[in-house]
């Protein structure tokens, strides 16, 4: 089986490449190989590689910057997906986001729940979803992080080593998700010949404040931080951003877990795994 992975140098793309089954012939491409803004280049890439599967890990993820660059966000998050889907004769595995929901639910969002994105980023990701075909596979996730990537965990580690005090939003709730766990799920769903929409996140629930407190505790225990600093819970209204974010973005992953039969790892355990890998990176 030939598989092409877009966004191969990103934190999810690297995990997908690293965890590819030995029986799979996997090729990774990134920005320097194909500019996803160039629709003709995208179509040529698909035609030249002619894979059985394309796993699309590439995305415009600068949530706030997307408010001032909507055309660029749409080109990467929606138009490139359309170009892949309309050119590719095989199956497309596309990764999307909890930001397609508005955060007003009183329970975790199920794969078939109505979308109502609040931001340009969320709207462009929803538009990308709409280009998938019946045989394709859509996997939504959120709060993604991995060792060596650009993410909340590494930002917190830096700020905690630089500042005497840190305020973190406490009224946005979701679940941190370790990229290698999502990569494992992607390969599992491919192996199960799944199609349609699935959700993946780690087990449990957290606010960004809860996540930050856990990062500091685990990093101190592991020797990644020398000192602890006060972490102050703040409201979203006290930390204004260009893009609106859902206040509640838990994803219901029960459909995924039932199909794969692989249990559910709590986010704090996966945070420990990530920080251990981060320590090994130096």
From TrEMBL:
<feature type="domain" description="RmlD-like substrate binding">
    <location>
        <begin position="1"/>
        <end position="277"/>
    </location>
</feature>
<dbReference type="InterPro" id="IPR036291">
    <property type="entry name" value="NAD(P)-bd_dom_sf"/>
</dbReference>
<dbReference type="InterPro" id="IPR029903">
    <property type="entry name" value="RmlD-like-bd"/>
</dbReference>
<keyword id="KW-0521">NADP</keyword>
<dbReference type="InterPro" id="IPR005913">
    <property type="entry name" value="dTDP_dehydrorham_reduct"/>
</dbReference>
<comment type="similarity">
    <text>Belongs to the dTDP-4-dehydrorhamnose reductase family.</text>
</comment>
<protein>
    <recommendedName>
        <fullName>dTDP-4-dehydrorhamnose reductase</fullName>
        <ecNumber>1.1.1.133</ecNumber>
    </recommendedName>
</protein>
<comment type="pathway">
    <text>Carbohydrate biosynthesis; dTDP-L-rhamnose biosynthesis.</text>
</comment>
<keyword id="KW-0560">Oxidoreductase</keyword>
<dbReference type="GO" id="GO:0008831">
    <property type="term" value="F:dTDP-4-dehydrorhamnose reductase activity"/>
</dbReference>
<dbReference type="Pfam" id="PF04321">
    <property type="entry name" value="RmlD_sub_bind"/>
</dbReference>
<comment type="function">
    <text>Catalyzes the reduction of dTDP-6-deoxy-L-lyxo-4-hexulose to yield dTDP-L-rhamnose.</text>
</comment>
């Amino acid at each position: 089986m030939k598989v092409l992975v877009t966004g191969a140098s990103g934190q999810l793309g690297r995990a997908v490449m690293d965890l590819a089954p030995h029986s799979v012939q996997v090729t990774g491409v990134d920005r320097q190989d194909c500019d996803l803004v160039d629709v003709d280049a995208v179509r040529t890439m698909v035609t030249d590689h002619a894979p059985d599967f394309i796993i699309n890990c590439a995305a415009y993820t600068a949530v706030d910057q997307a408010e001032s660059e909507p055309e660029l966000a749409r080109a990467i998050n929606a138009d490139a997906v359309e170009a892949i889907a309309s050119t590719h004769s095989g199956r497309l595995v596309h990764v999307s986001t909890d930001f397609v929901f508005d955060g007003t639910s009183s329970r975790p969002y199920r794969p078939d729940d109505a979308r109502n994105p609040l931001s340009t980023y969320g709207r462009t990701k929803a538009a990308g979803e709409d280009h998938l075909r019946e045989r394709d596979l859509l996997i939504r996730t959120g709060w993604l992080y991995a060792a060596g990537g650009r993410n909340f965990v590494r930002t917190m580690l830096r700020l905690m080593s630089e500042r005497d005090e840190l305020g973190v939003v406490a009224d946005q709730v979701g679940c941190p998700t370790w990229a290698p766990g999502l990569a494992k799920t992607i390969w599992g769903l491919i192996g199960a010949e799944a199609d349609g929409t699935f959700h993946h996140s780690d087990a449990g629930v957290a606010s960004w404040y809860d996540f930050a407190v856990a990062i500091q505790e685990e990093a101190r225990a592991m020797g990644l931080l020398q000192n602890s600093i006060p972490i102050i819970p703040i409201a979203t209204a006290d930390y204004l951003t260009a893009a609106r974010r859902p206040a509640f973005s838990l994803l219901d992953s029960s459909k995924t877990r039932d199909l794969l039969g692989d249990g559910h790892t709590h986010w704090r355990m996966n945070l420990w795994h990530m920080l251990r890998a981060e320590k090994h990176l130096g």
